[in-house]
């Protein structure tokens, strides 16, 4: 990564609000925050879309700004239930980079949709909703990482 984009809370919050505006109301029963990056945008989307059912799934691929092998750190137990249709879940992430995390999750939840606040070219086509496009070689420092 050659450049850094350092985001403050206000900039990130405004981007999340714009993301909420392009997601159809009442299309989803629940949100799945992909931890850790998806926690903050999922909370904002939850308020704006009036969705109270939120699950988390833990997938890790970055260590010290280096992308490595994917690891499932916490499964989304509720999603294993037959009670809720998987197509009604919206997975939420702060960023889609190479798309490896989303491809990994789509193996288990092929009918789920994905929303990311920021999208890089290599992974952008994998998400249904995103609002900010950034170059592939930019490293983003999110407010909770500073």
Give the CATH topology: Rossmann fold
By oligomeric state, this entry counts as single chain
| Structural class computed from helices and strand pairing | alpha/beta
CATH class descriptor: Alpha Beta
- Shape label: globular
Q: Span from first to last CA?
A: 17 Å
Which residue ranges are poorly predicted, with pLDDT under 50 across at least 5 consecutive positions? none
Average predicted local confidence, pLDDT = 88
Main β-sheet: number of strands, strand sense, barrel status?
A: 6 strands, mixed
Strand sequence of the main sheet, in spatial order?
4-3-2-5-6-7
Count of separate DSSP helical elements: 3
Count of distinct structural domains: 1
CATH architecture: 3-Layer(aba) Sandwich
Order of SSEs: EHEHEEEHEEE
Strand content: 35-45%
- Tell me the Rg in angstroms: 14 Å
Per DSSP E runs of 2 or more residues, the count of β-strands stands at 8
Measured as a percent range, the helix fraction is 10-25%
Keywords: Cell membrane, Glycosyltransferase, Magnesium, Membrane, Metal-binding, Purine salvage, Transferase
Domain Phosphoribosyltransferase: 6-144
Pfam family, one: Pribosyltran
GO molecular function, one term: metal ion binding
Could you please describe the fold and organization of this structure?
By secondary structure, the protein is α/β, with parallel strands linked by helices. Helix content is 23%, strand content 36%. The strands form two sheets. Strands 4-3-2-5-6-7 form a six-stranded mixed β-sheet, with helices on both faces. The longest helix has 14 residues, at 9-22. GO terms for molecular function: hypoxanthine phosphoribosyltransferase activity; metal ion binding; xanthine phosphoribosyltransferase activity.
């Amino acid at each position: 990564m050659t450049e850094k984009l350092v985001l403050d809370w206000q900039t990130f919050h405004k981007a999340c609000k714009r993301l909420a505006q392009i997601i159809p109301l009442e299309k989803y029963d629940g949100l799945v925050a992909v931890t850790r990056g998806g926690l903050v945008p999922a909370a904002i989307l939850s308020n704006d879309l009036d969705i109270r059912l939120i699950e988390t799934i833990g997938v890790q691929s970055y260590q010290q700004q280096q992308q490595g092998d994917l690891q499932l750190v916490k499964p989304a137990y509720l999603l294993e239930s037959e009670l809720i249709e998987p197509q009604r879940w919206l997975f939420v992430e702060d960023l889609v980079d190479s798309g490896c995390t989303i491809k990994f999750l789509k193996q288990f939840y092929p009918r789920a949709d994905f929303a990311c606040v920021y999208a890089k070219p290599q992974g952008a086509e994998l998400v249904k909703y995103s609002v900010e496009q950034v170059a592939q070689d930019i490293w983003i420092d999110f407010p909770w990482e500073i």
